[in-house]
Amino acid sequence: MIISLLFLCLNLSSIFRLSSGRGALPSYNQSGYDDSIYGRSGRRLYAANDFLMSEEDYNARLEKLAQGGYMSNFELEKAMQEFNSRCPNISRIYSIGKSVLGVPLLAMEISDSPGNMDAEPSFKFIGNVHGNEPVGRELLLMLANWLCDNYLKDSLATTIVDGVHLHILPSVNPDGYALRRRGNANHVDLNRDFPDQFFPVNDDMDLRQPETKAMLNWMEDIHFTASATLHGGALVANYPWDGTEDKRRDYFGCPDDKTFRFLASIYSRSHYNMSLSKEFPGGITNGAFWYPIYGGMQDWNYIHSGCFELTLEISDDKWPDASELPTIWDHNRMSMLNLVGSVIKTGIHGRVLSSDGIPLPAAIAIRGINYTIAAGKKFGEYYRLLAPGEKYEVIASMPGYRSKRACVILGEGAVTVDFVLDPETSSTHSESRVLEDYARCYFDSTPSLQVVDFLPATQLEISLLLFVMLGLLCFLMQRRARKNQKQTHVSVPRRAAVV
């Protein structure tokens, strides 16, 4: 009886702490941006996919999960190894480093070619950043097993495995989990330990936590297109920026604010009830407007890695009873799958090659958006996430090469645009390619001949193009004049001869 009362008191205290933590502040849309524009796109990205395991096996697995409760760090590692044993052809297990107490930070890769570099995009899920928020650990294992069980049976599972390198790090803070506290073994909040654009957090890399160092190295090694971290304590999809320049609580959107709203809406509108939130309109929020934080992982991903990361609060309770995990999984399953699928089902994709066919790690920019991503070094591939329903001008540039631009009218589907860049020292033989592409605009992967803005990148090239066109016009006019003179000269004797 005494133990039960103590447990009840602990639960009540955690609830009171939540009221003064994330989720305590109201959220309003002050950006003037209409989220309803992309609402339908978010929901219809994929049709609902039914779980293809038998109902008996599915219920048995969920019942076992509810009875067994949360996994220990040892049990989590064992579960990951068992998953890899069941699905060796589409998975691998690897470590990105160790925690303060020496626990391996194990990650899973799910792909039709795990461990191999190719032109497919990479997505990462991260759980348990805060030790006292363990729901993500369990859900990420369930996601991995769902993909294993449904690969080649379910179209969405097959699309993800065949088209994406999905990396899953169930627990980046195993020490905090074992100690049942927010920070790591050194009492450091890992989501305040990353480099920050506004205020220095830890300028000395050697002073950062081992878990943070492991994450930074991991993101340096793998070219991630998008990412999401799973937290607890609220029900909302959070997007950058997480902080403001003056530390005020205010809406502060990043250059890709529309795109992040679209991605957040994909998650919230695929969720059972996240988009119905009364606290957060549409189930999404700007981090700085919710409450500013500094040294967070989300902003660092976008600034330094070209990776679009969301912070997902997936349960109102930080540490809900294990019996609630099956329901939380059901509520988040389609959201997690649709978010991963978005990296290949939306946006503008393609490759950048030299005129000799060599892949180029070119910079990919969008006119009007002050942000660039880099194409892959080995294959020259790029995946530029963008909100649908807009016309974009995509610019590919590389030192030593002439820049190229293309117009894209982006619908709900992805559009493929490949660039071939000519060396700056090359002659004007490439003008024919420029003229050929002048009237090309791209619609959902299908080229359509319409007059759009597609111009060389420099004023010199523009002047050269106009000069060539003017010269061609003068040549045609002179040719016509000579022809008329010749016809007049020949016609006189013919008429005379007839007479």
From TrEMBL:
GO terms assigned for molecular function: metal ion binding; metallocarboxypeptidase activity
The protein's required cofactors: Zn(2+)
Span of domain Peptidase M14: 69-343
Name of the molecule in the record: Suppressor of los1-1
Organismal lineage: Eukaryota, Viridiplantae, Streptophyta, Embryophyta, Tracheophyta
Active site (UniProt): E313
Transmembrane segments: 454-476
Annotated EC: 3.4.17.22
